[in-house]
Fold:
Amino acid sequence: MINISRFLYLLLILAFSCSPKSTVAPVEIQDDAPSPLLAIGDNAVFGDEFLHMLSKNREFKNSENKISEEEFFENLDLFINYKLKVKEAESLGLDKTVEFEREFEVFKDDLTQPFLIKNSLQEGELMKAYSRMKEVVKASHILLQFPPNASQADTISVLRMALKLKEEAENGADFNELAFEHSDDPSAKDNKGSLGYFTALQMVSSFEDAAYSMQIGQISDPILTNFGYHIIKLEDRQPNPGEVKVSHILVRSQGNDPVTEERILRKVSEIYTELQKPESSWEEICQLYSEDSGTKNTGGSLPWIGLGSVIPEFERTAFSLQEEGEISSPVKTPFGYHIIRLEGKKPLASYEEMESSIKSRILRDSRSTLIQSQVVAIQKSKYGFVENEVLVDSVNGLFTTTSRQEIAEILESKNLLDSVLFSINKNPKTVKGLLDFIAEDKQVVRTNPQNYFKTWFDKYVEIKLQEAEINDLMTNNEEYRLMIQEYRDGILLFSLMNEQVWQKAIEDSLGQVNFYQENISRYQWNERIQALILTMAKEESIPSVRKFLSDKKYQPNLVDRLENTFLINNPLAFTVSEGIFEWQQHPILKNANIALNFQELRLENKTYMVVLGEKVLPGPKKFEETRGKVIQNYQEFLDKQLISTLKEKYAVKINETEKQKIFDLAVAK
Structure:
C-alpha cells in the first residue's frame, strides 16, 4: 500500500507543477445537458472538480480567502495539465491494471469509512464510552445462570427467582448475603457479589448500561446477558481518578497453614521495617526479597493501572497513596502480601488520545454486533429493502436437509435459481447471486450446520446493503464523489509520471549525459577556493589552536595534524569542514578576506578558524559532480515535453460560461 502522506505530497506537486500555458478553444454549450468546464478529447470535466481543488483550505464565501486573477488562470492551466495526464493514463490502460485496481480499492475503502452510517454510529458509541469513563461506579451483583439446554420453562423459572431476590433485597435483606447464598458467580463465595469499582468497557454492554443508569443504593430489575440474569446494586459512583503507576514487593502466601502464615507475616513486617530506614534502597530490597520473578529485577515496576483493572485489595491501597515515593503498609491479596510504592499519577487521558484504544475495545466486544444490527436496520429502511420471506424460509429448509454439494442442483431442479430473495432500491438479488457469493468465499463467515444458510444470507444482505450505501454516496454526496475522483486520478497520475518522467529520467543514463551536454551553461562553478574551517566548540581551546594555525596555509594533511594535536585528549574541542568551496555563496567564507591564509571569524556567537589555499577559477562542473541536479532538471524537461505532446494529441476546449462562474466565485474583485 502506498504511504498516504507521500502520495498526497506527490499529488500536490504533480497536479500543480509548473508547466507551459495551453492554447484552448471554447466548447460549444448545449442548453439541454449539464455544462462541463472542459472537454479533453472526448472526456468532459465539470467545474465542481476544479473548484474542489481550487478551494482546498479556503472558503470563497469569505472575501479574504479569494485569489487573484493571476492565481486563477495559473491554477486553471495547471488543472488542465493534470487532466491531460489523467486522460493519457486512461488511454494507456493504466486504470485497467491489477495493480491499479488493488491500490484504488485500498484507498477507496479508507476514504469511504468516515462517510458510512456505521462510522457515525461507532462515533456515538465512542463518545458515550468516553463520557462514562469520566466516572467510576461501584456495584455488587447476583448472577443466576440457566441450566444446560434450558427450556423456556427453565428460563422463566430463573427470571422468577431473580425477581424474588430483588424483592427480598428491596425489603431490607442484606444484598451481599443474598449474593453469597444464591449467586452462581464463583467469586461470590469470597467477595459476596462485590465487583468493586469499574468503568466503561470493563463489563458486557447490557450490564454496563444498567449500572450507569442507576442511582446509588438502587437495585436493578433482572438484566439478561450471555451469562444469565443479573441483579445489580449500585453502591457508589465518583469521578474517575485516572491511573496510577506503582511498584511492589510480593511475598507469596498460601493461607492454609497458620504456622507458615505467621512466618510469612513476620517476614513481610521485617521488610517493611527495613524500608523505613533512611539508608534503605527500594530496588535492592525488592531484588532480595520480592517473590514476583517478573518484576523483582526492575524495582517491582508494574504498568499503569486504572480502577477496575486489578484485584480490589491491591487497587484500594494503590489509589490511596498520595505522594510519589510513598510506601504502603503490607496489604493481603489472594497472591500474598504486597508492599506498594507510588511512582506516579495521571488523570484520564483526552478523548483524542484514547479514541483508537476505545474503538479497538468496542469492536472486540458485543457492542460491535449491536452497531452492525443498527446499521443494517437503517440501511434497510433507507434503501427500500424488501425480503421474500417465504422463499428465504424455503431455501433455508433446503440448506438444512440437503448436502452442500447437491444444493445448487436441487435449487436448479426446482427452478429457484432466478427467484428473488430480496431487493434493494428495486434491484433484485437472486438465489443464484447468493450461491455465487458463497462460492467466491471472500468473506470471513463463521458457520455451523444449524445456521449455515442464515449466516451466509445475513452476510450477503450486509454486503449488498453496503454497496447500495456506497452507490448512494457516489450519486448524492458531492464531497465524497469528488474525493474518490481525486484519489483515482491521483493514482493514475502517479503511475504515468513514474513511468514516463521520474523513473525514465533516473534510468536513462545516456539521456542524462546528453541533457547535461546540451545545457552545460546551467552547470558551472563560480570562483572557488581551497579551505579548512574549524568551528570551535570550547572557548579554552581557542588560544592554542590559534597559535598552531597562525602561520599555516592550506595543505591536504593539515586536518590529520590538527586532530592528532588537539582532539586525542579533547575530542569535543572543535569540528572540521574541509574542501573546495564557492566562497562567495558560503555562509562563513563570504565573510572572510580571501587574501589572507589564516583568519579568525566571530559570527553569531561562534568562533571559526579559517585556513585558505589556492583559488580555483570558474568553469563547468563535471557530470559526476552535478548528476543529482541534472536528473532533477531532466525530469522537469521530460514533464514539459510530455505536456506539450499531450496538448497536440488531445484537443482541449473550455466552456467560457462555466469558467466565468468559477472566476466570479473565486477571484477577488
